[in-house]
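so i finally got all the pieces together for this one. its two components total, 320 residues if u count the protein bits. some of the lines might not be protein, just check the labels. i wanna see the whole assembly predicted at once instead of chain by chain like last time, that was a mess tbh
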Amino acid sequence: MTAKPHVLFDPALDLELRREVDVSPQLVWRAWTEPELLMKWFTPAPWRTTACELDLRPGGRFRTRMEGPEGEVHDSTGCVLALVPGSYLLFTDALGPGFRPLGSGFMTASVEITPTDGGTLYVARAVHKDAEDKARHEAMGFHQGWSTAFDQLVAMVRSL
Amino acid sequence: MTAKPHVLFDPALDLELRREVDVSPQLVWRAWTEPELLMKWFTPAPWRTTACELDLRPGGRFRTRMEGPEGEVHDSTGCVLALVPGSYLLFTDALGPGFRPLGSGFMTASVEITPTDGGTLYVARAVHKDAEDKARHEAMGFHQGWSTAFDQLVAMVRSL
């Protein structure tokens, strides 16, 4: 795939984090797509990402396992829908590996990485079924959580 | 997209119709992807397909409305996941247009159209969440239904 697919974004249903940073697009892409790097930043502390599998092709497995300070475990396996190497990744938890339906689905998420003069424009989006799921995601801490995770990503790539 | 995506097929969970026919791959592709043609064969009689919208790109809308002899209506909107023009179409009812999660999902379906010496090898597959959904689909009449619909497709394209 060399072009972004047709993804709809509706501010009434969906959420977005938009950040500009002075790190290279290449490093942001690596942080998202190399599991050993993703595990270092993906979950706001004190949660940790303790496993990650990413088969970087349409239909490929995207699994993350997150563990909380009280022993909580969120182990989630979704599906890569599309990608443009270096700049765009789309995945969902409505399908499992090989596009197999899971019978549920909370979000489809996209990560868009665009070069700027000084670094990277980073746009991460979560697309939901309805306004209720959007509100639920906000209440779960979307803005703070995705922003803090991205801060961790930036700090991590600076250390590479 | 120029290559088929990574789709898993598990005989314990999934269903397949495989047919060889002496009509051209081009006509089979047209019958599947031109809504006015699809409406002529998609539903085994006495059911009818009374509406179809197909936006033939990843993320595009795939809607079909079927009506039964007693006034039953099944109106379903899903999402195109991938395609190779002329030979491969993948779609799901787990996502709506633009890859938006629907919160449910019964199947991901693929249609594969391969040229043979005398015509076309047609392979249509339904990929399910689990063996229970496979059994439900069989009980709904998958084999008879998809086979009869394909007979209608062949008869229709012969008349073009």
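Chain B touches chain A through 35 residues (CB under 8 Å).
Chain B has four helices and nine strands.
anyway lmk what u think
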